[in-house]
């Protein structure tokens, strides 16, 4: 009883010390920015917020039905510069949004598949229970850790510098980052299986590929598919920001809208992103429930 009380006291003390350390860290972070006067909200933050929120509240796609069919643009002296039919312009823009949405889906889909294929052999080497040679296992784990620690956007910036702009850069960026996550989840799935079936297949003289195909793969396939769906779903979200580096898709439209302060169009694109992510999330959840 006394020992249990001592353990509980020690745990509470440890938690209290960690809490104090966390508070010190928070205060240090705030103080660092406060000393350099970098916590400013800028000029007229309330007015700017109200103006931006007002423009956000009217997504540009509404102009397809309610837009001015004869919107006049004039110079400061009143000279008529051009006349624009907002309904036609916005309908054309929505066509571009549809094409960008499909490009985003393609980038995320191909990048996810490539990442899974690259991760599988590394996961087999990294799984402790399959008995891969130490140095090969260490190299595989290190590769997966490096891939997982580097953000997709950083991979994208490097790849764009090598192969140029376009969806290929986005696909490779997603693949290389996802490879680390796939590899970790695949290796953990392999390590969780019953070694009895593996040893049984090995006892009849099966080689490594036969052990994997007959004992490992049937046991982990549902988890592999579930992991793939989860990461694929995440990459749908992640691919929407790759337009910042010129990879195309919805991210490019987001970059254009923010750079031109077109908050109505940004609102339209974000609504599309929300619908896309929510729909894919619901679909992947259903499939994962059916598998497990």
Characterization of the model:
This protein is mainly alpha-helical and 292 residues long. The protein folds into two domains: 1-40; 87-291, MetI-like (MetI-like fold, Orthogonal Bundle), CATH 1.10.3720. It has helices spanning 2-35, 45-56, 63-66, 86-126, 134-149, 152-163, 167-191, 195-203, 208-238, 250-259, 263-291, and strands spanning 71-74, 80-84. The mean pLDDT is 82.
Concise account of the structure shown:
The chain has 292 residues and is mostly helical. The chain is built from 11 helices and 2 strands, in the order H-H-H-E-E-H-H-H-H-H-H-H-H.
Layout of strands and helices, then pairs:
Blueprint: H1 2-35, H2 45-56, H3 63-66, E1 71-74, E2 80-84, H4 86-126, H5 134-149, H6 152-163, H7 167-191, H8 195-203, H9 208-238, H10 250-259, H11 263-291
């Amino acid at each position: 009883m006394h020992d249990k009380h001592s353990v509980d006291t020690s745990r509470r003390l440890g938690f209290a010390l960690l809490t104090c350390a966390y508070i010190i860290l928070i205060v240090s972070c705030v103080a660092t920015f406060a000393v350099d006067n970098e916590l400013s909200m800028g000029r007229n933050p309330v007015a700017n917020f109200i103006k931006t929120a007002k423009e956000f509240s009217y997504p540009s796609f509404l102009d397809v039905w309610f837009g001015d069919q004869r919107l006049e643009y004039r110079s400061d002296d009143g000279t008529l510069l051009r006349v624009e039919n907002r309904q036609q312009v916005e309908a054309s823009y929505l066509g571009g949004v549809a094409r960008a949405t499909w490009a985003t889906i393609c980038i995320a889909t191909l990048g996810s598949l490539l990442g899974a294929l690259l991760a599988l052999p590394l996961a087999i080497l990294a799984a402790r229970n399959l008995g891969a040679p130490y140095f090969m296992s260490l190299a595989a784990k290190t590769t997966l850790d490096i891939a997982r620690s580097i953000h997709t956007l950083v991979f994208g910036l490097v790849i764009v510098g090598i192969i140029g702009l376009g969806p290929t850069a986005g696909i490779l960026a997603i693949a290389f980052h996802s490879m680390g996550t796939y590899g970790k989840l695949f290796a953990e799935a392999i390590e969780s299986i019953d070694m009895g079936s593996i040893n049984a297949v090995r006892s009849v003289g099966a080689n490594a590929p036969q052990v994997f195909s007959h004992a490992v793969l049937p046991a982990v396939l549902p988890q592999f598919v579930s992991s793939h769906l989860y990461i694929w779903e995440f990459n749908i979200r992640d691919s929407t920001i790759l337009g910042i580096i010129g990879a195309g898709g919805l991210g490019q439209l987001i970059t254009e809208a923010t750079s031109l302060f077109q908050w109505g169009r940004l609102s339209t694109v974000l609504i599309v992103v929300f619908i896309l992510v929510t729909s894919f999330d619901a679909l992947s959840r259903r499939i994962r429930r059916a598998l497990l």
